[in-house]
Amino acid sequence: MKLSRDKVIDCWNFFERRYGTRHVNKRTWLMSLMAKKMGIRQLDDFFNSYSNILGDVIYIPFRLGSWDRSYHSQLVICAHEHQHKIQADRMGWLKFAWKYATDTVFRTNMEIEGYTVGMEVYHLLTRQIPDVPDVNWSDYMVKDRDAVFARTNFRIIREMIKRGGITRQASKDFREWMQTYED
Ligand SMILES: [Zn+2]
Fold first, then answer.
1. Per residue in 53-99, pLDDT tens?
2. How far is the centre of ligand 1, averaged over its atoms, from the C-alpha of 115 (Å)?
3. What's the Cα-to-Cα distance from 31 to each of 46, 92, 145, rounded to whole Å?
4. What does pTM read for this prediction?
5. Ligand 1 mean position to 80 CA, how many Å?
6. Cα 183 to ligand 1 centre (Å)
7. Predicted confidence (pLDDT) per residue in 11-46, tens digit
8. 146 bridge partner residues
9. 6: Cβ–Cβ under 8 A, 6 or more apart, which residues?
10. Ion ligand 1 residues within 5 Å by Cβ
11. 111 CA distance to ligand 1 centroid (A)?
12. CB-CB contact of 74 with 64 (8 Å)
């Protein structure tokens, strides 16, 4: 699919309508509190590199449709964060946010799903088989054994994608959005 600014904005609109979310710039007191709770020391990295969701609000460190980020990664972030919205809806967002901030195994599992969506969206957009994502797990403050577990998962997911598997809900939503552009 050929990407454009309009398509990036349209994709975010599609997801935001479906899940009742909205996006804002992420430098807020609430995100600072989350960062402190997670024990994050590299606050600049946290604020400049990562997106987050809290309740219905997605905090993004770039202007939507701008040149700050590749269009591809703005689409991946949209699907990734909405996968977290789906996770949070299952258990209630307050419980989700607290567990995410305080439980590294839970956080790892939630991020495995998020990065799986990134792999699946990459495949949908490019028809290529994605590499195992090079996640900087130390930025997530997870333990080494959790990072090893995550890499093992990603290798399995890569094999599933080779066999045509698109497994996560946000990836399926993304595929549905893409189909609105097919003749
Ligand atoms: Zn995530």
1. 889 999 998 889 988 789 999 999 999 999 999 999 999 999 999 99
2. 7
3. 10, 18, 27
4. 0.89
5. 6
6. 33
7. 999 999 999 999 997 766 677 777 778 787 666 666
8. none
9. 65
10. 111, 114
11. 5
12. yes
